[in-house]
Amino acid sequence: MIQANNISHFYGHEQILYDISLEIKEKEFIFLSGESGSGKSTLLSILSTLLHPSEGELFLEQTALQEIKNIDYFRQSKIGFVFQFHYLINYLSVYENIALAALKEKKKNINTLLEELGIKELASRYPNEISGGQRQRVALARALVNEPRLLFADEPTGSLDSKNSTIVYELLARAAAWGTTVIVASHDRQLENYATKTIRMKDGKIL
User: What is the rounded CA–CA span in Å between residue 27 and residue 40?
Assistant: First the structure.
């Protein structure tokens, strides 16, 4: 699914990642664990194609990153993203926020996802009319609407309380059970209860 070979990365003269190699298999739920500054978010950005590594090779579904001809379509059709902040558009309803990200042939998935995630009754409401936990569930529906092969989440519960964090983790685990490969970067060790594999990072290296 994902193969990273000897990945290093620099921001200016500062090295953030050091010679990282790893393999992520289909349908795994990966927990990238580490404190702030460990390099986990940078590695997640590289694995998700949002950032090109300074050194090394990245393969997704056996295709080298630089050989993917239409990277924007590849991201939209095969990758879902969930971040700490939901980035919902306040003047669009819950349904419209999800529909905006959906490919034409995938719009049929919206109502099913809303029901699966327990937010169907919120479809016509706006982001400022629902709770933080509900907004994050909308963000997860938006990430899943195109039935992505890969789902990346960077500190998806950083602004949530423990109850809503547990709900999000359970939903991510459900996405993995549906067949999506899930990779989450977080400092929250509670994720170990849900992930199939934990990758610990410190000072830009895998421990």
Answer: 20
